[in-house]
Every structure is written in structure tokens, then in C-alpha cells.
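Lecture 7 notes: from sequence to structure.
We start with the chain below.
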Amino acid sequence: MCNPYEQTLKEYRDSMAVNYMPAVKAMAARLKERLPSSIDFNDLVSIGLEELVKLSKRYDPKMNDNFWGYAQKRVYGAMLDFLRSIDTISRAERKLVKEIDKITEDYMSRFGTAPSDEYLAEVLNENIEKIKKAKKAGEIYNVFPIEEQLNYFENISKKVEEEELIDIIKKVLKELGEKEQLVIQLYYFEELSLREISDILNVSESRISQIHSHAIRKIRKKLNG
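Predicted C-alpha cells for the same chain:
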């Protein structure tokens, strides 16, 4: 039989898990807005709530008096780990993602809209299902921290240490145009969706996507230069 203090602590931890469930669902909803439709919102919620319960059981109010401050990044990290776990893309398909990105940027600069999957499949001489899978992988990895997203495609981490990489990215961002800087800031650091950014800047979502892709390509070129 547990003593009164342990019982009170257990009840306190249980109540925290319940109280912050809405916050976890809100976090999952925000993340889902930035992901392809194939990612299930309920899966994100389930992963987040599971992590929340684990954290509440380990939480010691003597060490940290702000539970959500303690748990927030860990819950979000668990959701990102889930997204990493469903990545089955090969090195060849990563190359395909980059080719799709380049063709899409060129197409949008000429026509102001994104090319269809059929167009991409024809230009790249690839099966349309491969095109869809590669696009999905690119959309998923766009939600990761910018340095991880760059590492994913370029294997930059072997060239520079993580802290140095972040410093380089910050310097490159300062060299981008004002609108490019704003898109990167809002997408990666404020965690807004492309739709939300398009509303803020009063331009089309496809144009925001183009600005985002162009900015990322500039950063990759600089890092590999």
C-alpha cells in the first residue's frame, strides 16, 4: 500500500495527463496541416497521447514546475519519430524527390501552378506511383527541423558538425530575399502550414510552395558549395 504522498503524486500525474490531452490533439492538428493527406491525424494523436502518459508518470514537480514546458518538445518529438518510422524511401527515390523539386520550380516559374503527377511521370520517364511516393516523402520531411531536412537529402552531416551546420544555415538565410526569409521563418520556426503562410502574405499557396522550394535549393547549393 502506497503512502499518502505517493498516492497524491500519482493522482497529480494522472490529472496532468488528462488536462493536457487537448493540447496534444491541437499539436497533432497543427502538424497534420503540414503533412500529406495519407498521414492519419488519429495516428499522430495516439502517438502523442502515449508519450504524454509516459512523461506524466516520470514527471517530478520538484525538478520542473511546468509540466507542459517539460513535455511539449518530447511529445512533438515522438510524433516526428513516428513520421521517421514510416519512411521507406531509397537513395534513388531521394534523388527523384530532388528532380521533382527542380522540375516543379521551373514549371511554376513559367505557368504559375504546380505540374500534375502525370506531367512529372512523363518528363522523368517514371511510373506515376513512384512519383506520388517520392512527393509524399518530400512533404513529410518538410516538417522536420530545417537542418535535418537538408541532411536527409544531401547527407551534409558527414561534412560539418551539427552546430556548425545550424550556424551556416542561419548565415545563408540572411542572404535570401525578404520574402524567402519570411517563408522559411514561418514554416520551420513558427510551424505554419503553406496555406496559412499564403493567407498572411496574400499570395497563392502554389507561389508559397515555389518560394519555399527555391529557398531550400539555395541553402543546399550554398552548403554543398
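Points to note: Residues 4-85 form a domain with the Rna Polymerase Sigma Factor; Chain: A fold (CATH 1.10.1740.10). The CA atoms of residues 186 and 200 lie 10 Å apart.
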